[in-house]
Amino acid sequence: MPSRATPLYRRGKYWLDWDRKKDGSLRSPNLTIWWYDPAAGRIRSATTGTAQEDLAILALDRRYLADADEAPAFCNACGQPLAQAQAYLLTDAIADYRLEWGDTRASGDTIQARLNHVLDFLDVEQAKGGEGRFGITTSCGAACTTVFANALRAWSREQPVTWKNGKGEITKSRPRSPAATEAAIAQIIAVLNHAANADPPRSDKRPIYKPLPAQQVQRKRRTRIGVEELARMVAYASEPGKQRQSLHAFLVASICTIARPGAVVDINVAPDRQQWWRGAPNIDLNPHGRAQNKKHRAMLPVLPLLAEWLSAELDEYEALKPDERAGRGWLVNYYGRPVQDVDRAWDTMLLNLGMPRAREWRGYVLRHSLATIARNRGAERWDLEGFMGHRASSQTEVYAVGEFPTVTRALMGIIKDIERLAPGSLHRNPTGASRSTPQAMEAAMSG
According to the UniProt record, where is the region Disordered (predicted)? Predict the structure, then answer.
């Protein structure tokens, strides 16, 4: 039976607690969901199958959402659901949003971090007692007001961004940027709109505020690197016997595509991804089955240098037995396995090359710098916007794939200069001759 103490979590008629014997010892190592069954006239229970509190809470939320009796109240006269923002708790709305949407997204970890920031705000307000305006009992109705948004903003701006080790100890911190605060505001807006859009609706109100415009809160990145720094990076990554293959592939693919780091590590030659096949003149940075979002991934012409790398990866993929090919084919990989990022290798490179390790020197500096160099070398704005995914594709471009000639010419010039400064460093196998010399590449692109 559950203990008489306050349960760990409660939602509607359900609560979460340990199943204990009369002597207080645990009957089960897993947390249990409890509820009163009026038909049976007794308390019933179901195991969550886990001892982790966060996973057990998700199990309770799933049971709650699947219970028709726990749906929104219905009007006795017309039978329509009564969505009451004043009765629907913000914490419940956050839980439902994560369960039904946020946790299923590729950006689920980012969404969770932003919403945890909001929950921390509610906990701080709750701890103030009578002095706090909000807390765990805050409803969606209250959260839709500008009063809530302004209070969240004021608190958030004073909270540093922290990093913790495995023991939960803070190892690093920095001041929170206005953009990070507005990202949390935008996330809570998504939660509140999700509640109003549910079928049936769970809330009859929507937030009356918006996040501040990006131009107002984002700090313009001023750091750029030149071709000389690019050559030093590629030479470092291509040094034989140093196990820097993933960093090497990341640098080369970034130079050839000017893509965001997340899109670069997502390049794969496996046929089911439908990104590239042998001899294809274009590569689709958006793999089959991935929905486009605001960070649009473009269809790009394949520069000969990139074709060399893709062909070599495809050779290795096809050399595998069919039952060994699952999860392989990644251009940026660690012994065949995909990587989420190259941040650790990147930090080590900056340290060894004596380059700054400030925030603006993260992997994104490649995209910003290459775009700047390409523009200064004659890349036209229209071509550069399409190449970088800053311009949403029109219906015409679904049929007519852009070649972006001014950008490709600029990139070919950059590649030629890197080859001159660090001979052989751009090739996948630095110890052997390339199948595409800079002169051959230039001839292929001009034809």
Answer: 425-447
